[in-house]
Amino acid sequence: MSTRVVVVTAGLSNPSSTRVLADLLGQHTLDALTRVTGEPVELDVIELRPLARPLADRMVTGFPSGDLSEAMEKVARANALIAVTPVFQASYSGLFKMFFDVMEPGLLDGTPVLMAATAGTARHSLVLEHALRPLFAHLKAVPVPTAVFAATEDFGSDADGALDARARRAAGELAALLGPATATGSSKRDEFADPTPFAELLGRV
């Protein structure tokens, strides 16, 4: 059984630095997972820009459209998530937040998440800790220790390779969280897989 990784990228321009970072993280994660699990890896990328109108409709009507439903289904089946957002007003973008706002409760329970963000200046790097990490903790996901921030200067021709090193480290942590368990099924915990015996439940009363 293959390992399924979904990349959610909320870049608004085309091309965007957010998508560039998402692709970098996706490639490093694919490489790391192949080394750790030895199993095939399926990598799906969800661009939120084309889903802007379906997301707004979902917020108003409560019903997702076809493209949005398909995106949510991919997230539901994923063993791991890579989530990348541009920074607006010192936080994640509204489009990024809308996507996670309309998710069904419990969809990300126990899912390892690699968080990343882009901005024009490194002054916004703390958005990973004060905005993204609390968001995914609230959603009961499992954020990896290393989050990746990229400022405009990190993509320059004279960049010193620090961004690539951070991306490799974060991807390695994501692969380690999944580990060989993905070879036999989803990394998400099945609450019915190991039920407490009824007699034990009675004994607690």
TrEMBL record:
Keywords: Flavoprotein, FMN, Oxidoreductase. It holds the Pfam family FMN_red. Coiled coil: none annotated. It comes from the Bacteria. Residues 3-153 form the NADPH-dependent FMN reductase-like domain. The keyword Oxidoreductase applies. The keyword rRNA-binding does not apply. Transmembrane segments: none annotated. NCBIfam families: LLM_duo_CE1759 (TIGR04037). This is NAD(P)H-dependent oxidoreductase. The lineage of its organism: Bacteria, Bacillati, Actinomycetota, Actinomycetes, Propionibacteriales.
